[in-house]
Amino acid sequence: SAVISQKPSRDICQRGTSLTIQCQVDSQVTMMFWYRQQPGQSLTLIATANQGSEATYESGFVIDKFPISRPNLTFSTLTVSNMSPEDSSIYLCSVEGSGETQYFGPGTRLLVL
Amino acid sequence: QKEVEQNSGPLSVPEGAIASLNCTYSDRGSQSFFWYRQYSGKSPELIMFIYSNGDKEDGRFTAQLNKASQYVSLLIRDSQPSDSATYLCAVFNAGKSTFGDGTTLTVKP
Questions:
Q1: pLDDT at B9 over 90
Q2: Who among B45, B46, B99 is closest to A43 (CB)?
Q3: What is the model's pLDDT at position A1?
Q4: Is the peptide bond prior to B81 cis by the omega test (within 30 degrees of 0)?
């Protein structure tokens, strides 16, 4: 299984600002995913990030609000732009393992005031 | 209709009992099915996966898949307090996994 780290682990931000979340994997992976999980709710896929191509966004999520970078096979960033209190959530990155399994990072807990 | 639906829960069982968690999915083209466990304040971790109809056992865990009925289940035998967590069913199709809302299990000593 992959070892995944995320930075920051938590943050408190002011409305209107942006936060960039980093995801680092200890091995090269093709597929990386970004999820949002609001308190007491399940995981919602934001986008899929493949190295060397544009991220693929799910319905309801747009690149201007959640720009993603994937510069190499071990790293990705998700930016939450022009934040509002509704963006308060846990943001998780994950990578695809064998057989379409997924391994998740520890998450970034974001509170927007 | 949600793509992946789970028992609303919460589910409470006594220590040593069998916990049964159920999941149905809507897309008949789905090929791969997963159970993840999520402890409070932690990220999900994979505990079981199943691709073929029938049962798959791993220790105290058994996953069951019935593609005709579009149904996946997870049985936890000899439940322990450490099994208390939220269990997420996930279905893989078209390059991505879709997660259910989860069932919260409490195992009482």
A1: no
A2: B99
A3: 76
A4: no
